[in-house]
Amino acid sequence: MYLALLVIFLHCSELYAQERVFTFNMVEIKVQPSVKVKNGAPMSIICHADISKKNDFQLSHNFTIFKDGKLVFMITSDKGEARYGIPVARSSDTGLYECAVEAGGKTKSSKSLHVWVTGLTKPILTAEKKEVLEGEVVKLRCELPEEASPLYFVFRKIKMNSKPNEKHVSESHRNFSTVEFSVEEEDNILHFDCLVRRLVNLELETSEPSNRTLVTVKEPFIKPTLKAKPSSNITEGDRIQLECSTVVARMHDIEIILQKNRTILNSVRDEKLLKYSAVATLEESGEYLCKVEQGRASKTTKLNVVVAELFPKPVLTASAIKLDENKELTLSCSISGFRKANFSILRKNSNGDIWFKNSRNLTMRVHVNDTGSYICKAEVKGIVKESKPVRINVYAPVSKPTLSVVSGLPEVVLGKPLQLICRSVMGTPPITFKFYKGNEIKKTVVNDTYAVFLDENIRRNDKGGYKCDARNDHSSGMKTSNILNITVIVPIRNASLGSNPYGEVEDGSDTAFLCSVKEGSWPIHFKIFKKTDHEVLLFEKSENADRILWRKEAMSRQDTGTYYCIASNRANVDVKSHPITISVVLAAWQKGVIAAFVLIPIAGAIALTLWWFLFKKKTAQRPSMEMSGSALATNLTSEKLTRQNNDGDYYSRSGYIEDGENHMKSTDENKGPDLESAEVEYTEVEVSTLDPHRAPVQKGTETVYSEIRKANNDSMESRYSRIQGPPDAT
Fold this sequence. Notes:
By secondary structure, the protein is mainly beta. The chain is built from three helices and 59 strands. It holds the Pfam family Ig_2.
């Protein structure tokens, strides 16, 4: 039963779901009366949902309205439209509106719509005080209760017949602002107002002015009075007295100040009257200012005073302004149209003027230290006036100048600048110096005691002709130096080193080294080095030549190595040659000695070997030789003996060994003295001999000279034998 009910319930639910099919066609947002609304007018934001349904059924809608991304309105309704009403629109309602509708688990949003509320409400201005004193401040507050920030406030201080004084304040987080205006002198009745501006859609909107607020100003004291006694027009030498006074409501912290050209002449505090007195001079003419201050309040009064001239400034004249020393100078002081005055003549000095004479005229013989600025002073009725200064220059003659090279020596390296100095020990500055190269003026310098000339165009053939002259305003005229000759030093160029013999040198022999340069001024300093782990100086010498020869005697194996030379002159530039390599080898006689020590033992060994071989042969043949005589001996000695080794190769070595007469002594001892007179014959015998080491490397022949002496009765012959010796073991 329960199973049947469950099946029926599920079937009904499925049928209900199939009947509630719908879809959103569109969601749109609109504003009434329009997207541009005047400030203060009513406004409505309408969100409408267009939905299609399969069947007619009730559907609940959740409407949400956003302004600039923030939620401002939300409602649930069975209708397809929702309305968000704003009774009084303000500029803060300007923005981007958007709505979203949710129904049956589905949500759809509208496009954005921009709404612009034009205009601003009228701001409200309030003042903290309605009545203030001069020097105090007025504090104002301007606000727009129904508007939202950011806002830009403009406060205005309005006076009669003058342009309003404005102050601007920007507020980013509040809809009001405050400001202070100071109350100045002559501010009697003040009006204040404010207005507000706002930037919307890149357009600046401005509100209408606020209510105007009236502020009354009271004076803490009256404007001061400034008077001159006896009057404002007086003559030099008279005494002038100035008085400044005011009327004050409250005698506290009040101050009176008297000024002329911003210079304070006198001041009093907590008093109503200020006095100032002085002897009138032309400098006293001008505008005087009396200022009364109390707190922030300040009032001023001006008075112009004219002082008439009692007598003009004196004039100082001189018989001459440029004089030679020991000449006579006359100074005269005068006043145009006025003769009754006390005159004095002085010379200006930083430590105080130097007095010469209390008179209108002065005559003196001048010296160099009398150079300076002279003035005269005139005094009438206590008024002292000073003339314009007159400059007097007294000159001593210049001495003969000396011209020299700044570096000291009268020489210069080719390509380098030459700096000359012309100096005159005596003479009153300024001195005019002129430099000459040849007859051409190169430079003119005005200085005190010396001048410097730099010649940057030095050529190889520039040798002299420099001079300078000096002069000042002395009547003696110009003095000229001696002519200065300059040596132009040509730097070393292309140093080279050679040797004889070159490359290989026999031990014990001499070697000549030649160091030379292509060009360079003499003397030239030559150095010859051998390069090892460190530089070794072998030879150095200065020569008035472009080359130098150095002979090293008895070269040894230790002298093998790399050599180079360095050349320099007064140009102070070392020029290094390319290196050369010297190898010290054995001398010819040393090679011969070594060969002798090596070859003599070898030759001795070979000779001993042959002697032993022949001795053995002759010992074996002695009985046959005695029986058969010379014929058999000849056949035996001419017989060719050959022997073949296992490899089938033959080795021979040729050589000649001369044997002594004692070679056959042991055989012929029984012959007695007759043997010494026997005739000597040479027989060539060719013998093939196998090398005892059996090394098949080379063949050779050895010729052995053997002397055989026989008695006259035996006709013994001497035989010349050629023997093919044993091969070289090597």
